[in-house]
Design brief:
alpha+beta, Methylamine Dehydrogenase, Chain H
Length: about 450
């Protein structure tokens, strides 16, 4: 009799679980879509549904990578002949912190290391609005020192939520707490700083629930900012508003699996133009807009998009100006299929020539032969002598080719425990200005206790 009752109770629980599950799922869906909301009920259902991902964010760092290169560790290959340096940004798996190393590429010797105390910097920021989860998501144990830039005065600029600048001893010089910065950092010839931010509050009155966003709810409103050398914002403009004001609004409001697309642009690089030419003017900006697979030339002085290219690249990162008529684009060649994003073949470096209106591929066979295929992120630099540097961010590898396509050296960010970890948008310092900055820094940096 007792066993029969137990079975009866089990069946009843299972029977009741079906409508409860359906109702719960409907409440979550309504809250996400914003089509029909049920106040505290749908909000609570969504909160419960997000518990597993919240726990993961709190306790799990995703900076460890798949090991595609089990035979590689650190630098392998032949140092460069010409004087040049690598500003290597990486998550140090031994320290479990993000660091930056200045490396002489003539001998792979580490000349200096920056290891800022991100947790200490975060303490002075009020944890509200876009900074609500700063301590959780961008602390020392899960933060890279993103796209570091060595400045003329010997400071190091980087992005780790706020835009920050530190000295040779990793002491804070300033941090801009007006916005959440992301992706690239570049400076122009007058030492003004250009970087992408998230506009907050958003410039559009849209309150859909976002995914992979710095705030729990809202449209991902990328912005362009220009800052003074001491970190004060001088110019700010929403990229969404730029699209609307340039009659490109039709690209913004598209569906994504029947859900409002909260991130239709995804600005990942701003490259300032430093000289006048036939195809652009000093002060213009090249913008890499990932989710449109678009590179645009924007003129802040007139608020006009002068040119836009949606050529043979997919989900690209990193646009660079090569000369007075050509640009290069790091093409992730990443496409979204049923089971997620994959690289369709290999990454590419594509050159667009404004004179001929033609695209061409740079050292394509070398990239293919070495199976370069970071799905997201990634950087490339074509040096004046034709050499090519690529950071394969998603696999912790940096790779350098001679102008003839021969592999010269690789670097793999492997820790002593054998695990491979993310890189953080490293850059080669090679021209006269960069080398002067490095030499001045090494001469003046002193010692740090």
């Amino acid at each position: 009799m007792f066993k029969k009752i137990e079975i009866w109770i089990l069946y009843l629980v299972l029977l009741l679980a079906i409508p409860v599950t359906i109702i719960f799922g409907s409440l979550v869906r309504y809250e996400i879509l914003g089509v029909k909301k049920y106040g505290i009920l749908s909000k609570t259902a969504l909160f419960i549904a997000k518990v597993p991902s919240t726990i993961r964010k709190v306790f799990y760092s995703d900076l460890k990578l798949k090991d595609r290169f089990p035979l590689l560790d650190g630098f392998n290959g032949t140092p460069t002949l010409n004087e040049s340096y690598l500003l290597l940004s990486k998550f140090d798996g031994d320290l479990q912190e993000g660091i930056v190393e200045l490396i002489d590429l003539r001998n792979f010797k580490v000349l200096h290391t920056w290891n800022p105390d991100i947790d200490k910097f975060n303490k002075s920021i009020e944890k509200i609005d876009q900074f609500k989860y700063l301590d959780r998501d961008q602390n020392d144990s899960r933060q890279r020192i993103k796209h570091p830039k060595l400045t003329r005065d010997g400071g190091l600029l980087f992005e780790s939520g706020p835009l920050r600048k530190i000295d040779a001893c990793s002491n804070l010089i300033f941090q801009n707490k007006k916005a959440m910065f992301h992706h690239s950092i570049e400076t122009d010839t007058e030492e003004f700083i250009w970087a992408p931010i998230y506009i907050y509050p958003q410039s559009l009155p849209i309150e859909q629930v976002g995914r992979d966003i710095v705030v729990e709810e809202g449209y991902r409103d990328d912005g362009i900012v220009k800052l003074s050398s001491d970190g004060k914002i001088l110019f700010e403009k929403s990229l969404t508003q730029i699209f609307i004001e340039n009659n490109l609004e039709y690209l913004l409001f598209t569906k994504m699996d029947s859900v409002f697309n909260h991130d239709p642009l995804h600005l990942n690089d701003i490259q300032p133009v430093n000289f006048d030419g036939k195809f652009w003017k000093k002060g213009d900006l090249f913008l890499s807009i990932r989710d449109q697979s678009m590179v645009a030339l924007y003129r802040p002085s007139t608020n006009k998009i002068i040119w836009k290219g949606t050529g043979p690249f997919f989900n690209q990162h990193d646009v660079d100006i090569l000369n007075d008529h050509s640009i290069s684009v790091f093409n992730n060649n990443s496409k979204q299929f049923k089971d997620g994003a994959i690289v369709d073949g290999h990454n590419e470096v594509i050159i667009y020539d404004f004179k001929t209106n033609q695209y061409s591929y740079y050292l394509n066979e070398s990239l293919k032969k070495n199976d370069v295929r970071t799905i997201k992120q990634g950087r490339s630099q074509i040096l004046p002598n034709g050499d090519l540097f690529v950071e394969e961010t998603n696999f912790g590898r940096a790779i350098y080719f001679d102008a003839d396509g021969l592999l010269r050296w690789t670097y793999l960010n492997r820790a002593k425990n054998g695990n491979v970890y993310f890189l953080g948008w490293s850059r080669i310092l090679y021209d006269d200005k960069d080398i002067t900055i490095v030499k001045n820094f090494l001469h003046k940096k002193g010692t740090c206790e």
